[in-house]
Automatic annotation (TrEMBL):
Signal sequence, start to end: 1-21
Entry superkingdom: Eukaryota
All copies of domain ZP-N, residue ranges: 592-680
PROSITE patterns tied to this protein: PROKAR_LIPOPROTEIN (PS51257)
Keywords for the protein's UniProt record, in alphabetical order: Signal
Domain ZP-domain containing protein Ig-like: 367-480
Keyword Signal included in the entry's annotation: yes
Start and end residues of each stretch annotated as Disordered: 711-734
InterPro entries per the UniProt record, alphabetical: Ig-like_ZP, ZP-N
Name this polypeptide is given: Zona pellucida protein AX 4
Biased composition (Low complexity): 723-732
Keyword rRNA processing: no
Length: 776
């Protein structure tokens, strides 16, 4: 399954090409002479899709196909995920040319960019660094090769050894080959026939070479201590008369596929594939480079002999190994190791056999857990998530609560994504998203009476260069205390408006004006204009409605302040208050405060003879004069009980009355306007105490124009039924600012009562008679 997957990957990746460049110029080519083979390594990204090789010798150009490679001693491995193509050519490969002590390799590399082929001639000359053992066996990935020293004298009359060379063989060659299997002896055949079957026999540098692909019909399997072994046993012989020349050629290789266990790639081969007199020597390495056993051990390689089997263990992440991530409904990783093993055996005749193995070990797909960490610090005001992935896994996009953003982010986003490369072959992405960003889901938690800020991050990861996406989801959450609402406010000439956008958890709070909770009823009763729809709450409080406080009253204008409170629904504790103060123009107004002051701005022009401006004005008590005057306009502010006010009880109300008089020159004063404050009796605590006045409610003020003297009022035969009232109920708490210019002396109010004591009038209706107060 693993291998199958790898091949799928290979297939996929073989379609992958990057921008072309002249790789010979770029120096991405590597040609190396190894102990027993010549190697060319190419960067796949430089060679384009599907590079091909051709072997070149004096006889011509020979395309290296799979079958031809196995027969002629070439191995081509493609490691697409590394972008690497490697060609290995045996020194005994068909088209290596021998020049003196050297082997000369010539190849054509054929690259293909978008259908355009290019040829590159490569050549290199190698002199094998080591002397050759009497018998050398190479177990390549696609063939087995045996070479034996042949220093035997040629028996007289036999054909020259050269006739072994198939290319040079003539019909006179009488070399025969006989394949043997344990249970049967196959009929002999001549070398031409063997060649046709894919075998290769050769004579080179005094060595007889035999090469066979794996899986030949004449091969057989031999299990040695549980390790599968493939063997091809060929005997070549030449018979001339009574002389028979016979060479036994056995190619045997461990076919163990490799396994993976606890972080090790394991591989085994029988200790004595060939006759061995004493212990065999082994050295191991990766990618064709052998190591001293001590060094290998230091690097964590395991070399054990067990039950006549050599067991090799390579740490999966050994230097020189390859690692690749793979996406298939999950992130997996696998490791590929090009194991190179040399085994030296000595038989009882002290003849040495050197065995070399090239084996590609592939680990199974190992599940890889993406590392994520929630690194959010609430106080920073941002979500911070950390993602760590292997270096060949890339983040291509993220979905934040389902909204997709390509990576890297544009500059106009409020989010950041920082990438860092780690030393341990991983890299990491740190994503930040502000806690209050619109993309963050905010959900009220009734249980916690707090707000959940929730962000689902769906990372799209790909294992490059593939494109199969893997989605990794992370949810981060922060619990934030909820803040009570605050209003947007606005002034206009006739009132103040308060505006509030609804939030889902608004039921946590009550809105109130003073002590009274704001409801549609309250609004209607007090004359507020309120709308409360799905968008939000809009409250408009017209000037002079209940709840206002006034300050800095002058003829020019005054300040009106209105306060809206937000209280906890459960504890009724005041959480926030929105106080708005606006300037208003004063034309005419009267205020009857709960603490017993009357404040009036009045215009006498309606009652004055046309165009005349009075010398002065005063109240009933002529010592009480206007605090401010401006032509016909006057401002008075005085305690209800003072300045000669009259008090009357009228249908459950107590009514305080005073008048504004005006005069010209030294002439007697003329009665101008009547000022009146009416309080419901039930609301009064101490109506008749001399110095204190307290009311639950503001009084209702009226400015009454005398009918006869009034000019400019509608002159109708019908007497006007109602006095002109300019101001609605008001309330003020700042009388001190407007202490009158005099301090009235103590006043006494005589009352005749039938019940109770003074000061106990609260709640009593009727049964109270108050005589007309004595004027001062
Ligand atoms: C071998 O390659 C070199 C360049 O690497 C070139 O100069 C030389 O001519 C080539 N020789 C042959 C015989 O192709
Ligand atoms: C090899 O054997 C085949 C079949 O027996 C025969 O046709 C062929 O001529 C032989 N070749 C040589 C070189 O003897
Ligand atoms: C040694 O190999 C033989 C043959 O495969 C097997 O039966 C035996 O259990 C092995 N012994 C050990 C200790 O592995
Ligand atoms: C095996 O025997 C040969 C010849 O006696 C000797 O040279 C070699 O060192 C021995 N190898 C081991 C591993 O003992
Ligand atoms: C890789 O390195 C980073 C940074 O040094 C570290 O935070 C992380 O834990 C390491 N990951 C693994 C899997 O060791
Ligand atoms: C992540 O996004 C992908 C692509 O839109 C989607 O198919 C997948 O269901 C998402 N995963 C989760 C857990 O939401
Ligand atoms: C002030 O605003 C309220 C509410 O929007 C509106 O009804 C009223 O007419 C406005 N008054 C003036 C003078 O603009
Ligand atoms: C406004 O309406 C919402 C529901 O639509 C209600 O929960 C809220 O109490 C109302 N606010 C006021 C002040 O009436
Ligand atoms: C008061 O009246 C003056 C003059 O009519 C005007 O310019 C000013 O805007 C008014 N102020 C307010 C608060 O209505
Ligand atoms: C002013 O009033 C007093 C008493 O009411 C009166 O005696 C007097 O004649 C009046 N003076 C004028 C100029 O009317």
């Amino acid at each position: 399954m693993t291998l199958k997957l790898i091949f799928d990957v290979a297939l996929l990746l073989s379609l992958w090409s990057t921008a072309g460049c002249d790789f010979l110029m770029e120096g991405v080519l590597q040609m190396e002479c190894h102990d027993r083979y010549f190697m060319i390594a190419l960067d796949l990204s430089a060679t384009g899709t599907d590079p091909r090789f051709e072997a070149v010798d004096g006889a011509g150009v020979h395309p290296i196909t799979d079958a031809y490679a196995a027969k002629c001693g070439y191995s081509i491995s493609v490691l697409p995920f590394l972008g690497l193509v490697e060609l290995r050519a045996s020194y005994f490969s068909c088209h290596a040319e021998k020049k003196a002590d050297d082997f000369v390799f010539k190849f054509n590399l054929v690259t293909n960019y978008n259908g355009v082929e290019a040829f590159y001639a490569l050549n290199k000359s190698c002199s094998p660094p080591l002397s050759w053992s009497p018998r050398e066996v190479t177990c390549e990935v696609n063939y087995m090769e045996v070479s034996v020293r042949s220093e035997y004298p040629c028996p007289a009359g036999t054909n020259d050894w050269n006739t072994l060379r198939p290319t040079q063989s003539t019909s006179t060659s009488d070399w025969q080959v006989e394949f043997q299997r344990p249970d049967e002896q196959l009929p002999p055949m001549n070398l031409s026939q063997a060649l046709k079957l894919g075998y290769m026999f050769d004579l080179l540098r005094g060595r007889i070479v035999f090469r066979t692909p794996y899986g030949q019909h004449e091969s057989y399997s031999a299990g040695v201590n549980g390790v599968p072994v493939e063997v091809v046993h060929a005997t070549i012989f030449s018979r001339k008369g009574w002389v028979v020349l016979l060479v036994d050629l056995v190619a045997a290789c461990s076919m163990y596929e490799g396994s993976y266990d606890s972080g090790y790639m394991l591989w085994s081969t029988p200790e004595a594939l060939y006759a061995s007199y004493n212990r065999t020597q082994i050295s191991v390495g990766l990618n064709g480079h052998l190591m001293e056993p001590a060094i290998a051990e230091k690097k964590g390689f395991i070399m054990e002999r067990h039950n006549s089997t050599i067991k090799i263990g390579v740490p999966y992440n050994a230097d020189g190994g390859y690692r690749k991530s793979f996406v298939s409904s999950g992130i997996f990783e696998f490791y590929i190791i090009n194991l190179y093993l040399k085994q030296t055996l000595v038989d009882e005749y002290h003849e040495e056999t050197a065995l070399r193995f090239h084996r590609t070990l592939v680990s199974p797909l190992l599940p890889y857990s993406v590392v994520t960490e929630d690194r959010t610090v609430k106080a920073d005001g941002v979500f911070t998530t950390y993602l760590e992935v292997p270096e060949d896994v890339e983040l291509t996009s993220v979905q934040l609560n389902g909204k997709a953003f390509k990576v890297p982010f544009g500059d106009n986003l409020a989010y950041t994504l920082a990438e860092a490369v780690n030393l341990n072959n991983t890299h990491s992405y740190t994503l930040t998203v502000p806690l209050h960003d619109p993309v963050v889901i905010q959900q009220f938690s009734q249980e916690n009476a707090a707000m959940f800020h929730k962000l689902d991050v769906n990372y799209t990861l790909v294992a490059v260069p593939e494109t199969e996406p893997y989605y990794h989801k992370v949810s981060v959450m922060v619990l934030m205390d909820v803040s009570p609402p605050s209003f947007k406010t606005a002034c206009n000439a006739s009132g103040i408006s308060f505006e509030l956008a609804h939030r889902s958890y608004d039921y946590l709070w009550d809105i109130s004006i003073g002590l009274a909770q704001l409801t549609l009823d309250l609004a209607a009763k007090r004359g507020y204009v309120m709308s409360n729809d799905s968008n939000g709450l809009l409250l408009y409080v017209p000037l002079f409605t209940q709840g206002y406080e006034y300050k800095d009253i002058s003829l020019k204008g005054f300040l009106g302040t209105f306060e809206v409170l937000v209280k906890s629904h459960d504890t009724l504790k005041i959480l926030t208050s929105t106080v708005k103060t606006c300037p208003f123009n004063s034309t005419e107004l009267i205020m009857c405060s709960t603490n017993g002051w009357m404040t009036v701005v009045a215009d006498l022009s309606l009652v004055l003879p046309h165009g005349k401006i009075p010398t002065g004005t005063h109240l009933s008590n002529n010592l009480c004069v206007a605090k401010e005057k401006d032509g016909t306009r006057v401002l008075y502010s005085f305690p209800l009980n003072s300045c000669g006010s009259a008090v009357k009880l009228l249908r459950g109300n107590v009514v305080y009355q005073n008048k504004i008089y005006y005069y010209f020159g030294s002439a007697n004063s003329t009665e101008g306007l009547t000022l009146q404050c009416t309080y419901p009796l039930t609301g009064l605590y101490s109506l008749f105490s001399a110095y204190r006045f307290e009311s639950d409610k503001d009084g209702v003020g009226s400015i009454i124009y005398p009918i006869e003297n009034t000019k400019g009022l509608p002159s109708s035969t019908e007497p006007p039924a109602k006095p002109q009232t300019t101001a609605a109920p008001q309330r003020t708490r700042s009388p001190n600012l407007y202490l009158p210019s005099f301090y009235p002396t103590a006043r006494y109010i005589k009352v005749s009562r039938t019940h109770g004591l003074l000061g106990s009038y609260k709640g009593i209706k009727g049964g109270v008679q108050v005589k007309q107060y004595p004027q001062i």
